[in-house]
Amino acid sequence: MELMDRIALFTPLDAAALALWLAAWIGIGYAIEKPPEGRPTVSVLMARFRRDWMRQLVTRQPRIFDATILSTLRQGTTFFASASMIIIGGGLALIGNTERLLGIAEDLTLKDEPAIVWELKIMAILLLVANAFLKFVWSHRLFGYCAVIMAAVPNDSKDPLAYPRAAQAAEININAARSFNRGMRSLYFALGGLAWLLGAVPLIVATTITVIVLGRREFTSNSRKALMARTGK
Length: 233
Description:
The chain is an all-alpha fold and 233 residues long. It has one domain. The chain has 9 helices and no strands. The protein has helices at 3-8, 12-33, 42-59, 64-96, 98-109, 115-151, 162-193, 200-219, 222-230. The longest helix is centred in the middle third of the chain and has 37 residues, at 115-151. 29% of the residues are buried.
């Protein structure tokens, strides 16, 4: 089947829903990482605390507490990377089983659509999951880099290398957290993308709900209020 023939299998509403889905994914990520001045998101506020953490690291003895926190962060990235791999494997297995795929499609929508339509929809979802996997893997590695830099921070606060290296560790830690958060957002939108299997309108609804959930957690959640209170703002 030619490319144009495959595209013709989808309606203009499908194209609009897909464009909205992708635009929302990119747009909410930008809004979270680059919020308006004076209205920081949870992610931005947590970056400030990560810098404070590394400054406290210089004089904390022993540093077992810091090592434990970093180990926990790395375990989180490992868990979600593994989960993403399982999702990708399951999705590819479903694509490879055409009869089962068509059976699921018929149960969901009662429409007689060719298998290629469902395969392309699932592939679109898996692309976001694959992006999440790559983000989690990179986040895990950055947390590893952070651990090495933290170990290189001198114990003496008067050492001229102490606070500059602590600042380096903080920035690597922030970058690792940013990559992890991007992976999580990809999974959120991948879950929302499952609604496309039901049709274009469900995808639009699911995308809207996903944006609202992410926006609320970053801009108006109780966690944000607590962080703002602690920063004295």
